[in-house]
Amino acid sequence: MGKKIAITTLGTLGDINPMLGLALELKRRGHHISFSTSKYFQPYIEKHGLTFHEVKPNLDPNNSEIIQTVLDPKRGPERFHRNIIFPHITESYRSFLKVADKADLIISGILSYFAPLCAKKLQKRWVSVMLSPMTFWSIYDPPVIPTMEFMKYAYRFGPDFNRFLFREIFRVSKEWTKPVQELKLQEGIWDESNPLTDGAASEYLNLGLYSPLLGEIQPDFPANSLLTGFVLFDQHLNHQELSPRLRNFLQKGKPPVVFTLGSNSVMKHRCLFNLFYEVAQQLNSRSVILTGEANYAKFKGLSDDKILFDSYAPYSQLFPHASCIVHQGGIGTTGQAMHSGKPMIILPECNDQHDNLERTKRLGIACGIPMQRVSIRTLKRGLQELLSTSYYTHKAMQVASALNQENGLKTATDEIEKLLKAKEISSLKASC
Fold first, then answer.
1. Is 131 within 8 Å of 331 (Cβ atoms)?
2. Cis peptide before 244 (omega within 30 of 0)
3. pLDDT at position 293
4. CATH 3.40.50.2000 residue ranges in the chain?
5. Could you give the 3-state DSSP secondary structure of residue 289?
6. Domain 244-403 adopts which CATH fold?
7. Topology, domain 4-230+407-431
8. Ranges under pLDDT 50 in the chain
9. Which region, left, alpha or beta, applies to residue 329 given φ > 0 means left and ψ of -120 to 50 means alpha?
């Protein structure tokens, strides 16, 4: 008999899509799924036949104020949490508590800080989902933090140095979490964990929905942690297929360079599309430039037989046709590029993007240019290096072949069902 599962996450499409992929597979296996997230995504969730519940804040990817905050590499994390996420923690907790009360299992993403509190309050089993290596904050495999570029060498300093560094970082950031700590006291949840670190870990199951190629499980990972491989799901609210124009373009010539900036950076860095266009012209290379819907009207008239502008395309359908991929380094885009077997140039700015760049560089499949330093000259030179040697393409094909041995969606859903079955067995024993 299918179980009731309450899934919640917050963020961009890159955060929503892996959880939606999980939700649909669990639904296919007969479970009853509710999906709680920002109201902006309600049509997207309901279009896939899932029960939607709103939790706040409403992270509208078209809201320029939110975008500017999220993509600020220096002050973004603090402002995002203090001014956007945590002011809504009590409201979201009370809203999700009603949904979770009826569920057999809770599955939560990293920004849903209210979900672990609901699980503890209701004494429910729950699964914590991490989408990238950075979110595990291992002292043995330390992440590269934006504005702290020396962190790319931190693994050389050893775990003691990294332990000290992380302790200082989290000592400062714990001040941001006062609304969460106050909510715990109000609700009688006796838990001293920091919601930004150990509070995000479940005692039952922690799933890393990314490939171990980016980083293996480390000794300081939470207990019951498993790396499943990527869960790739890239449908858009209005686009599930390549546009006829794009499909026709791909069929008519050599593999193009693909330029894309994900669902957030397209709003902040509109000027980069002019730069991409100039680079494509100077390289005299067939190119596809994805602008996002808000920018498409401005650029679509520049398309010709060698350079095509489009608003959006499912990466799983586009990237395999590319010669190489230029992108911002979000984990979802990075995973799709890795699966396509194509080398990439990453333009990192914030969050996990610098860390994802360093991990793909270690695999020999990527070069990088920090977003604030990208120019026509640096990007053109990087593409020439990538396209003039078979080294990167050969490495990228090797990585794709290894990824084909993984099945992140099956592994993750199998583990979730094992946890549900373990609960059934415990209940039966308790009733005997």
1. yes
2. no
3. 81
4. 4-230+407-431, 244-403
5. strand
6. Rossmann fold (3.40.50)
7. Rossmann fold (3.40.50)
8. 428, 432
9. left
Here the tokens at position 164 are: 């000290």
CB 122 within 8 A of CB 97: yes
What is residue 241's predicted lDDT score, i.e. its pLDDT?
Answer: 81
Residue 421 tokens read as: 């079955």
Query: Which tokens go with 187?
Result: 């609700």
Instruction: Specify the pLDDT at position 428.
Output: 46
Pairing of strands 205-208, 225-227: parallel
User: What is the tens place of the pLDDT at every residue in 288-344?
Assistant: 999 888 788 888 899 999 999 998 899 999 999 999 999 999 999 999 999 999 999
> 389-404 in b/e burial notation, b at 16+ Cβ within 10 A?
eeebbebbbebbeebe
Give pTM, 2 decimals.
0.91
User: Which amino acid appears at position 224 of this protein?
Assistant: N
Cβ-contact 291, 299 below 8 angstroms: yes
Q: How far is CA 278 from the centre of its chain?
A: 29
DSSP H helices in 49-158: 64-70, 76-79, 89-101, 114-122
Structural element, H or E, at residue 368: strand 366-368
Decide: helix, strand or coil at residue 222.
coil
First CA to last CA across the chain, in angstroms?
21
